[in-house]
Amino acid sequence: MASYGVAPPWRTTILLRLKNRDREQFHAFEELIKANQKHVEAVTLLKNHNEEMQVEVVRLRAENLDIRASGGGGGGDSGNNDKAQALEKKLFNVQEELTELHRRKGDNAQKVVELSQAVQERDLDIAKKDSSLQEALQAKTIAEHNMERLKRSQRDMEKANEVLKDEQQALQMAYDSVEDQFKTLQRENTDLVDRWMRLKEKTADMVNAGNEEQREQRKKRHPASATTPTGPAPAEDSPKATPTEGADTPAIQDTPRSSSFISRVSNFFSGATPPLPHGAQSPEQRDSVVGAPACVSACMPTKSTYKYEPHEGEITSIRFSCNGSYFATAGSDRVVRLWSMHGLATTPTPLGVLHGCNGGVMSLDFDPSESLVLACANDYSSRVWGVGDQRLRHSLTGHSNKVTSAKFVGGAGKVVSGSSDRTLKVWDLRNKCCIRTIFAGSACHDVVVADSLGNVVVSGHFDKKIRFWDIRSDASANEVMLNGRVSSLDLSPDKTLLLSCSRDDILKVIDLRMNSVVSTLGCDGFKVATDCVRCCFSPDGQYAACGSQDGSIYVWNVQSRKLETVVKEHTSSVLTLAWHPSGDYMVSGEKNKKCIIWREKC
């Protein structure tokens, strides 16, 4: 609001526009209008004067008639005649003056007509200029609308340009990665060619040595032939090489020994695995999947049997080994703890503490052989420990933001990790390097491996999408769009169903065979607390469970979509939970560093 005594700006603008209009439209005709007014006033004066003269003429004519009618004597007649002559002269002058006034009136009328025409022409010009002004104003309004539209288009183009720049950067990074892989393959190819050439040279030397040895043996058996010039000895595999007559043993007696040595050399340079001693296990056998205990029907967690605080901060991940012989817990205190609980025991037994993370641990996983445990953390890295010796085996660094999830792929030889830097990385633990980087386009919150061979990986993202990847081609095979940010994923035991938890407080069950949502689980009161809340299937695949913000655990029947039970013993948000592979009990962890073991109430 304008202050007192100061005109608001819009009023000043209107006054300025009115003055400009007066200056352009009125002042140009000001002299013409004044001249027209002067002529109109002159015409009015002449009209009045003409009327007065007409009155005077009528009066003089009446006097003249009176004088003629009252004619008298000579003296009187001469006086009257003089008077009449004077009056006639005066009348003549008046008539001339009247004629002049009529002429001037005609001239003035002509000027008035001309001025009126000029005024009309000027009015027409003003009307045309007004119409032109209106058209210009309309054109200005249209131009302003077009300018606003173009500005919006410019903003949209700038946003699209930013997206294209991000995609270009991602493609450039992908190109650099592919180029590095190509250079690595070239170096490996060159190395393999060199090794192959060296192997062929060694093989040739060994064949030559064998031939020399045979030649020496023949000389020893037939001394007489030593003086006889002979050609080169035939090769061992030549059809012309036959045993010498009279010899006790054939000439190719040492061939098995030579071929065995060549085979061992070939296996050494080609990387083949030598034969194992009797009773020994190969790495593939050691990596074989440990059989999980059969679960006919999972327990319904209705009774808390044990509460304890294994960590100093919030508990973010709980994971059982494949056969359930032990489980691991992790949280924001940067350590991983191993526990075991067998049979009907109610309290877990601590097995050890795994150190090495420099940030809060986000996710855990065991390899199928239960010999390694994997953890990813907020320090942009993942780590692998041995379960038996509890020693740090591998540190996987390369992400540019916190690593939110990591899983073993097809055994203990590979690991896939997802990060908030919008990438997924595949790691080769045997070569201790990253072998593939997948650019997802959005922050990854969880990953699962959808097949036993480890070729299909499913990831949940911040942009509300679930993406399916074939890690052999770096391409997204398919996408599923949800209504909220994806916080976690889990596979059913038969790997045909995928469970997803999202920030719209809904759990969805996706059939991987049809690639469609078959069930939607949710209810009043259930609320997902953070972007890292973990959901899980029961070992028999019949139930789906997830923790809520109010400390409750909700369990749904997957087939009927019915809420089976709600239990609440936690005092803060439940972030993670896991069923024992046998289905006998469940372990849950909350934000306020508490773990609870649940069993079915008898």
Q: What is the end-to-end distance?
A: 76 Å
The best one-word shape is: elongated
Find the structural class using helix and strand composition. alpha+beta
- State which percent range the strand residues make up: 25-35%
- Strand line-up of the largest beta sheet: 1-28-27-26
Sheet bearing the most strands, described? Answer: 4 strands, antiparallel
Structure write-up:
By secondary structure, the chain is α+β, with helices and mostly antiparallel strands. 37% of the residues lie in helices and 27% in strands. The protein has helices spanning 9-25, 30-69, 74-221, 255-270, 283-286, and strands spanning 303-308, 315-320, 327-331, 336-340, 349-354, 361-366, 372-377, 381-386, 392-397, 403-409, 414-419, 423-428, 433-439, 444-449, 456-461, 465-470, 475-481, 486-491, 497-502, 506-511, 516-521, 535-537, 543-547, 552-557, 563-568, 574-579, 585-590, 595-599. The strands form seven sheets. Strands 1-28-27-26 form a four-stranded antiparallel β-sheet, with no helix packed on it. A hairpin with a 5-residue loop joins strand 6 and strand 7. Helix 2 runs antiparallel to helix 3 and helix 3 (74-221) runs antiparallel to helix 4. Mean pLDDT is 81; it is low at 225-290.
Please describe the structure with a list of short key phrases separated by commas or semicolons.
elongated; four-stranded antiparallel sheet; 602 residues; single chain; alpha+beta
